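Q: I'm writing up a methods section and want to include an example of the input and output format. Could you take the sequence below and give the corresponding predicted C-alpha cells, formatted cleanly so I can copy it straight into the document?
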Amino acid sequence: MVHIIFSNDAIFIFPAHLGQGLAGALDEDLAQVELTPSGEGLHWETLDVDLSIPGLMSGLYGTKAWMQWLAKKGGSSTSTAKVSASRRNGQKGGRPRTKTTTP
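A: Here is the clean output for your methods example:
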C-alpha cells in the first residue's frame, strides 16, 4: 500500500499494484519516493515512475493504456459470486440470443 499523508493530516492510500510501474516493487523501493517540486506528483527514481497525486485521487493510476489494461484484468477475474451467477444464468438457458432482423 502507498500512503500519502498531507500537511493537514488527511491520508490517501492506494494499493501499490494499481500504480503503473509499481506492481511487484519491493517495499524498500516504494519507500524511496520523493515529492515533485510542484508538490503535485510522486517520483520514484529507482523505479523510474512518476504519478500525479490529483490523478491518483481521481482514480487514475497511470496512462490510458494502463487504465484499459486494469479494467480488462478486473473484468476477467473470477470470483465465487461470478461463478455462481454464471451457473444460475446457464440453468435458465444462458444468455438470450441476439435478435437479428432481416430487411
